[in-house]
């Protein structure tokens, strides 16, 4: 973010034959976890940029159990800007924070972006242009991943390549949560009942006419990302188990192959013994077979257990999140104009 992102609004919005008018209200969804240092810069810049595209702006902050004074900072800023605040009773995770934000968003379109200033504002102008051209979902795609480690880049490439082959959804490997969602897309996402969520997969699953926009990630304003590699691994497993049953079905194939190999080996041993009198040493082959089959069984049980755990989580039907406090925004421009009239 920064002043350089506050340059002139995108010219293509005027003078082109668009299918849609500018939205009456835009909700900017900012999931936040320990972002007290970043909000004082992110919120004013975001509001000032968005208000040129609509009559009313809502900045929706979902506080995911922050340990700092994120909520207090947001409440102070709400005296000057139209900020709605959803405060969780504890940390539920970013995927749930995004879901809560969509549940409470009031805009005709919802723009999701990070609270740390890494998503450049001018890209939002491109989002809105494509939405007006008839796209229901416009998402940002990272131009490069130079700021990430080699291990993370390799993991991402392999994972999304695998997911593309075994699931019924296709997720762009360089896409994230930075995107614009039309009201119809938001309503579709709200209707999904599952508790275990990978939002990038759900964006792809609901479908609708979509458009990718390339952008360069800018430097974080302050602090460090709290997203850890184990969080990435957990999210990857969620994606595999939520959008594909192949990990379950593959063990039927593996079992059939092992059974065929075992039968063939057994017939070979039997024939060699009957016709050639070959003495087959039993212990080495027996021990290897036991350990091999034992490992296969434990691995397959673990995968089935993960699916079963997710079924258990679904049937309990606990709420996705618990809101400790909710503060609804007011359009500050309306109140300002009323003050001027008075």
TrEMBL record:
Domain of life assignment: Bacteria
Species assigned in the record: Vibrio nigripulchritudo SOn1
Keywords: Membrane, Transmembrane, Transmembrane helix
Domain (Glycosyltransferase 2-like): residue spans on this chain: 29-188
Name the UniProt record assigns to this protein: Glycosyltransferase
Gene Ontology CC, one term: plasma membrane
Pfam entry (one): Glycos_transf_2
Source species taxonomy: Bacteria, Pseudomonadati, Pseudomonadota, Gammaproteobacteria, Vibrionales
Gene3D superfamilies registered for this protein in UniProt: Spore Coat Polysaccharide Biosynthesis Protein SpsA, Chain A
Keyword Transmembrane: yes
Transmembrane segments: 250-271, 283-309
